[in-house]
């Protein structure tokens, strides 16, 4: 049972980074020590994000000391509690944020772990915190997206982009989804997108004009991609529009034409969700509460579109770097965990 796991397991399997740019799956890794205020979690699934790949490469703003265990988004069951923890019990199903998530066990501060809603399985829960948390904070608390407004989502076939599409539709916006392939656009369509742009073969500004009657029709631009797409997408913003800088999956940080910000009275917001826990925890908890309500109303449904075993964690991370991933990528950290069905939710939307 859960209590036995917390006592008996002193070694584990984990995805370890001993040198930057390389992930190795190692057996016999010592389990992390449990400190006051922490909980030990038997990790069923670990959700992956582009930031995890950057961290492995040593290119992220947070640079852990080598060696370290990759992964930061977990879902599993509580198997041991540190001193002073009162909000959790052994056996609770939880999800949340920590370091060292790509392992059979992880420890996390109890305040960063939340109960998994009954409607979600472990794989769905591991797909939830970062991508939905980032998108909700960006669209609701920063952009103040309103019903009837137009939202343009770049990278709409990725995890964070697909979440933005769902949340945008839940808020009543008209959502234009842009992605690099027809397969990714099909996913965005299933998430509820109203219009689709394949930016590998189509011009973003021309397609926006086709959909909306003018090149500058977008109220909110959600950009986790950056790179060469940025300029054309940025010019689709209407007077008083809002740019949300989410990330740079293209690998290139674009230059911002600040003269257009002046002429069009544009607002630019950068969104780094993880920093809210240190700087504004009240807002992030309010956001998560709103998301829980959206889940209950079935306005959003997290899903794991690509599932890898822990033995293939390096391959999973590489799929993010090469922008091959469609939707959310998760890693199954225990072979006996209930196998996720990546198509269950997607097919339900057809």
Number of distinct beta strands:
16
The assigned structural class equals: alpha/beta
Order of helices and strands: HEEEHEEEEEHHEHEHEHEHEHEHHEHEH
What characterizes the major β-sheet? 7 strands, mixed
List unreliable stretches of 5+ residues.
Answer: 1-8, 339-350
Distance between the termini: 39 Å
Strand content: 25-35%
Tally of helical segments:
13
The proportion of residues forming helix, as a percent range, comes to 25-40%
What Rg is obtained from the alpha carbons, in whole angstroms?
20 Å
Shape field: globular
Average of pLDDT: 90
Task: Give a brief outline of the structure.
This protein is of the alpha/beta class and 350 residues long. Helices cover 32% and strands 26% of the residues.
Annotation keywords:
350 residues; alpha/beta; 7-stranded mixed beta sheet; 6-stranded parallel beta sheet; 13 helices; 16 strands; 26% strand; globular; disordered N terminus; disordered C terminus
Secondary-structure map:
Elements: H1 2-8, E1 11-17, E2 24-30, E3 38-48, H2 50-57, E4 68-69, E5 73-81, E6 93-97, E7 105-109, E8 113-115, H3 122-126, H4 129-142, E9 150-153, H5 159-170, E10 174-179, H6 182-190, E11 195-198, H7 204-212, E12 218-223, H8 230-234, E13 237-245, H9 258-264, E14 267-270, H10 276-279, H11 281-296, E15 306-309, H12 313-321, E16 329-332, H13 343-348
Helix pairs in contact: 2-12, 4-5, 4-11
Could you explain the architecture of this structure?
The chain is globular, with a radius of gyration of 20 Å. The chain has 350 residues and is α/β, with parallel strands linked by helices. The strands form 3 sheets. Strands 3, 5, 6, 7, 8, 15 and 16 form a 7-stranded mixed β-sheet that branches. A 6-stranded parallel β-sheet has the order 11-10-9-12-13-14, with helices on both faces. Strands 2-1-4 form a 3-stranded antiparallel β-sheet, with no helix packed on it. It has helices at residues 2-8, 50-57, 122-126, 129-142, 159-170, 182-190, 204-212, 230-234, 258-264, 276-279, 281-296, 313-321, 343-348, and strands at residues 11-17, 24-30, 38-48, 68-69, 73-81, 93-97, 105-109, 113-115, 150-153, 174-179, 195-198, 218-223, 237-245, 267-270, 306-309, 329-332. The protein is built from 13 helices and 16 strands. Helix 9 (258-264) links the parallel strand 13 (237-245) and strand 14. The protein starts with a helix and ends with a helix. 32% of the residues lie in helices and 26% in strands. Residues 1-8 and 339-350 have low confidence and may be disordered. The longest helix is centred in the C-terminal third of the chain and has 16 residues, at 281-296.
């Amino acid at each position: 049972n859960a209590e036995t796991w917390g006592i008996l397991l002193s070694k584990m399997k984990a995805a370890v980074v001993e040198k930057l740019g390389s992930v190795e799956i190692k057996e016999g890794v010592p389990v992390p020590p449990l400190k006051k205020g922490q909980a030990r979690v038997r990790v069923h699934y670990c959700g992956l994000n582009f930031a995890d790949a950057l961290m492995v490469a040593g290119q992220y703003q947070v640079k852990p000391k080598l060696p370290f265990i990759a992964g930061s988004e977990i879902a599993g069951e509580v198997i041991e509690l540190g001193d002073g923890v009162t909000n959790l019990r052994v056996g609770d199903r939880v999800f949340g944020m920590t370091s060292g998530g790509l392992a059979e066990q992880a420890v996390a501060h109890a305040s960063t772990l939340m109960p998994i809603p009954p409607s979600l399985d472990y794989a769905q829960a591991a797909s939830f915190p970062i991508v939905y948390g980032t998108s909700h904070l960006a669209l609701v608390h920063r952009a103040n997206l309103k019903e009837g407004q137009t939202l343009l989502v770049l990278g709409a076939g990725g995890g964070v982009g697909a979440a933005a599409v769902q949340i945008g539709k839940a808020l009543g916006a008209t959502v234009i989804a842009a992605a690099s392939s027809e397969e990714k656009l099909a996913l965005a369509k299933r998430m509820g997108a109203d219009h689709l742009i394949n930016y590998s073969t189509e011009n973003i500004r021309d397609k926006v004009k086709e959909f909306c009657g003018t090149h500058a029709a977008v109220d909110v631009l959600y950009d986790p991609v950056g790179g060469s797409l940025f300029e054309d997408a940025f010019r689709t913003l209407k007077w008083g529009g809002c740019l949300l800088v989410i990330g740079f999956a293209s690998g290139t940080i674009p230059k911002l034409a600040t003269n257009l910000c002046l002429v069009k009275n544009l607002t630019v917001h950068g969104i780094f969700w993880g920093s809210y826990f240190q700087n504004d925890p009240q807002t992030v908890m309010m956001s998560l509460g709103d998301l829980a309500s959206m889940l209950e109303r079935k306005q959003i449904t997290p899903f794991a579109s690509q599932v890898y075993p822990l033995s293939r964690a390096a391959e999973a991370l590489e799929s993010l770097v090469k922008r091959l991933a469609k939707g959310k990528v998760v890693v199954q950290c225990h072979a006996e965990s209930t196998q996720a069905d990546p198509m269950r939710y997607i097919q339900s939307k057809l």
